[in-house]
């Protein structure tokens, strides 16, 4: 067994690499979370370890995900990443501080929105397109985005319903208050209720939105409805939606639901409440 010790100059961190097994077999550090510099990016010890092992194995680097934790479309990607065991190279982009308008990011994504991923030469934004790409590229099977033409058509229909109707109406109703302190508008509330009624109809006699099992349609719509619930919007008229939302939470519990989705939903809910009280 050959061991190579990589030492960091500024601390006592060392990585021991076993060239026979191509595994990092041991590392010592004074401070586990201490960051140090590798090339041009600041990475944690765990990330550096992952990158070194990955490059020794000759595998591709994991996709880079530009994101902000509370953003609902970013939460979808993080949850799917956990389901597919994708070890994203995470780059927080604080849109509240204008980081998404910096030239480096805008030259990559002129629409300057998150989530955005970079997977080797592919740069992709629009969360729902990212979801289907990641399942196709990293899924062990097609369950989350079924290849069967008619099932896929239903998944696409629900995913596009979320983009163009459910999330759009949710955003139209709540976001002006959250970001500009504008008063809530009754006409926009009715539009959101109409979309929720349509979702309720889609769930009639069904466990999941588009297939016999959980798909990316449930993921994207579920994140939207969980945010609506966190804003304490009245969901009493939608019993099938509430039952499905509970199944959605249970399904994602092993993949960090609380930490990834609920905590982000709560952060936005706090921002919303703070604006309502003003
Ligand atoms: N349809 C897009 C929406 C993305 C989006 O609106 N992202 C927000 C954060 S939640 C953003 O990046 N806002 C900054 C900007 O668009 O300039 C998706 O689902 O990815």
Describe it.
This protein is α+β, with helices and mostly antiparallel strands. It has 3 domains: 3-57, no CATH class; 64-138, Glutaredoxin, CATH 3.40.30; 149-277, Glutathione S-transferase Yfyf (Class Pi), Chain A, domain 2. It has helices at residues 45-57, 72-84, 103-108, 127-138, 149-180, 186-202, 216-230, 239-252, 257-277, and strands at residues 3-7, 14-18, 23-28, 35-38, 41-44, 64-67, 89-92, 116-119, 122-125. The strands form 3 sheets. The chain has a 4-stranded mixed sheet with strand order 7-6-8-9, covered by helices on one side. Strands 1-2-3 form a 3-stranded antiparallel sheet, covered by helices on one side. A hairpin with a 6-residue loop joins strand 1 (3-7) and strand 2. The chain is globular, with a radius of gyration of 21 Å. Residues 1-14, 16-23 and 25-43 have low confidence and may be disordered.
* Proportion of helical residues: 40-55%
Total of domains = 3
CATH architecture of the largest domain: Up-down Bundle
Q: Kindly name the structural category.
A: alpha+beta
Helix and strand pattern: EEEEEHEHEHEEHHHHHH
Strand order of the largest sheet: 7-6-8-9
Instruction: Count the E strands.
Output: 9
The main sheet comes to: 4 strands, mixed
CATH class of the largest domain: Mainly Alpha
Low-confidence stretches: 1-14, 16-23, 25-43
Q: Indicate the multimeric state.
A: single chain
Shape: globular
